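Hey L., structure's done. Input below.
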Amino acid sequence: MAVAGLKFLIMASLRAVFLSLLVIVASAGGDDNNGGGYYDLMTPILAKEQRLLSTMIGIQGIILYKFGSTISPLEGGLARITCKAVDEYGYEAASYTFLSDSSDANGYFLATLSPSEVDDKRELKECKAFLELSPLENCQAPSDLNNGVSGALLHSYKLLVHNKMKLFSVGPFLFTCQS
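Output:
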């Protein structure tokens, strides 16, 4: 009988914790019209009224190269990020483009953009990441693996609260080499 009572207490406690979490999530959801709350953090597509650059954005990925049948990380590679922009009246403006830092020995790259780097009267909309440059003379051909040539759309992100950054991930991207 004691085991049955213990199971009942555990199940009741778990139900209480679950219901508490549901209440917290529901109350954090907020009103969809105010642009805040838990729902907006988990929504991969940005709401129309939410600025892409409300915080710093970061784009991370891996750049590789293929020589014969061997695939290795590419050190010194660059990615390019291009974003469509609109002016203060909602009309299409000149696109905004920036480069990543050079990829490290593991092929990892990071590109960052802060709100202060973009004209206040422009708003960035759709952004894509592209393979840009390989430092290897015989590996200059970008492949379209993971849309490295056609452009990998930035569509979902992790919110890094401590860095105040929306971190997008793309790739891995691949350059091919001539043998």
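The first helix runs from residue 2 to 29. The chain is about 20% helix and 35% strand.

-- N.
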